[in-house]
Write a structure and sequence with these properties.
12 helices; two-stranded antiparallel ribbon; two-stranded antiparallel sheet; alpha+beta; 357 residues
Length: 357
C-alpha cells in the first residue's frame, strides 16, 4: 500500500487537528503532544497504538525502538536521562556507537554525551562523574578567551572577571585585590569604584549596572556621548537605540521617545511605512506577512491585505489576506494562518510534501 495512505504525515495530522481546533497555535500545541508517551489529550486519541505506529514524528523528533513514542532527537538520546518508555534512548550499545552532536562530548563511560561547557564547571553532569575528575581538570588548558579560577580546575570567560557576579566556585573571579589591578576587556570600562567592569553600551542606558550606580550618575551621563546608532532622550542623560523610537514601547524613562506629536510628525526611513495610527514605522516587508507588527494591528488588516499585491516570488494564501514565499508552499511547515499552504489536496503529488516526514 502507498506510504501516504499507511502513515500519518506530520502536516496532514496538523490539518486534521486544525479542523477541530481552529486556533493554529492550539493545533500545533496539540500536535507536538501526539505519541509523546505522556498522554493527556482529550480531543484526539494521542497515544493510540495503531495511530502511533503509523504516525511519522515531526523532523525534530525521532521514534524510540518500540516504534511508538516520539522524543526530541537532539536532546533526548544518550544524555544520561531516560526519555523513551522502553529506555532505548539510553541503551548502552546504541549510545556507544552513536557520535555526540556538535559541541558535545562523551563521558569516560563512552555512553553519555554532555555539553563541552559543562566540563570542569564544578557541577557533575556525567553519571560516572568523569567530567569533574580533579586530575584531569587541573591538567586541562582553558580554551581561548577563557581563564582558570584560582583552584586550577574551573575555566570561566575572561569577560566574567570582575563583573560582580561570582562565577568561580572559589570566588576568585571577584577578589577585590585582583579586581583593583584588573584591566577591563575591549569595549568595557570600570565603574567609579575601580573594581567592576561593565560593557560601555550599558553606561547611561537608564538601568543601573554598577553596584555603586556610577554608570547612571546624572552629571556623568549628561556629558556622555551615545554610541553610534543611539540617541539621547529629552532628559539629556539616557541613550536608547534609534530603532526604539516611536515603536509604542517607551524606552526613555521620561517617555520622550514615544511623544505623540513628535512621532506623528516623524518621517519613516526608506523601506519603512507608517501604521494607520500615524505613530509607528515598520518595515514594508512586514505588511500582510501574517505576523502583527503594528501596535494597532493595521499591518494585517484584512481589507488592506486583500488589496495588497504580493511581491514577485510570493503568492496569496487561500484567505487572500497573507502573502508567503512560493518556496514555502507544500514544504511541510505551516506558514499561512489558514494552513492552506499545506492543504493535502493542493499538495498531493508534491515531491517536497511526500519527502517531508
Amino acid at each position: 500500500m502507498n506510504r501516504e495512505h499507511t502513515q500519518f504525515n506530520y502536516t496532514s495530522q496538523l490539518l486534521l487537528v486544525h479542523k477541530t481546533r481552529p486556533n493554529v497555535w492550539s493545533a500545533v500545541s496539540t500536535l507536538i503532544k501526539l505519541c509523546d508517551g505522556r498522554g493527556g489529550l482529550q480531543t484526539v486519541p494521542d497515544e493510540d497504538e495503531k495511530m502511533c505506529e503509523a504516525f511519522i514524528c515531526p523532523d525534530w523528533r525521532r521514534k524510540c525502538a518500540d516504534g511508538q513514542q516520539c522524543v526530541n532527537k537532539y536532546d533526548s538520546f544518550c544524555n544520561g536521562h531516560v526519555q523513551c518508555d522502553d529506555k532505548s534512548d539510553e541503551d548502552p550499545d546504541f549510545c556507544r556507537a552513536r557520535e555526540c552532536r556538535h559541541g558535545y562530548m562523551k563521558c569516560d563511560d563512552g555512553i553519555q554525551c554532555i555539553h563541552e561547557l559543562h566540563l570542569c564547571d564544578r557541577h557533575i553532569h556525567c553519571n560516572d562523574k568523569s567530567d569533574e575528575d580533579e586530575d584531569m581538570c587541573k591538567a586541562r588548558e582553558c580554551k581561548s578567551s577563557k581563564v582558570k579560577c584560582d583552584d586550577g580546575i574551573q575555566c570561566i570567560y575572561e569577560s566574567q572577571l570582575c563583573n560582580v557576579y561570582t562565577d568561580c566556585v572559589d570566588k576568585s573571579d571577584e577578589d577585590e585585590d585582583m579586581c583593583t589591578d584588573f584591566t577591563c576587556t575591549d569595549k568595557e570600562r570600570k565603574c567609579a569604584d575601580g573594581l567592576q567592569c561593565i560593557a560601555e553600551h550599558r553606561f547611561c542606558d537608564g538601568y543601573k549596572d554598577c553596584t555603586d550606580r556610577s554608570d547612571e550618575d546624572p552629571d556623568f551621563c549628561r556629558a556622555w556621548e551615545c554610541e553610534s546608532g543611539s540617541v539621547k532622550c529629552d532628559d539629556g542623560m539616557q541613550c536608547i537605540y534609534k530603532s526604539d523610537i516611536c515603536d509604542r514601547y517607551p524606552e526613555c524613562n521620561d517617555k520622550s521617545d514615544e511623544d505623540e506629536d513628535v512621532c506623528k510628525a516623524r518621517i519613516c526611513e526608506p523601506g519603512k511605512t507608517k501604521c494607520a495610527d500615524n505613530h509607528q514605522c515598520i518595515n514594508l516587508d512586514n505588511v500582510c506577512n501574517g505576523l502583527t507588527d503594528c501596535y494597532d494591528e493595521s499591518d494585517e488588516d484584512p481589507v488592506t491585505c486583500k488589496a495588497e499585491i504580493c511581491k514577485p516570488g510570493e503568492q496569496k494564501c487561500a484567505d487572500n489576506t497573507q502573502c508567503i514565499n512560493i518556496d514555502r508552499v507544500c514544504n511541510g511547515r505551516t506558514d499561512c494562518r489558514d494552513v492552506s499552504d499545506e492543504d493535502p489536496e493542493t499538495c498531493k503529488g508534491s515531491k517536497r510534501f511526500m519527502e517531508y516526514p
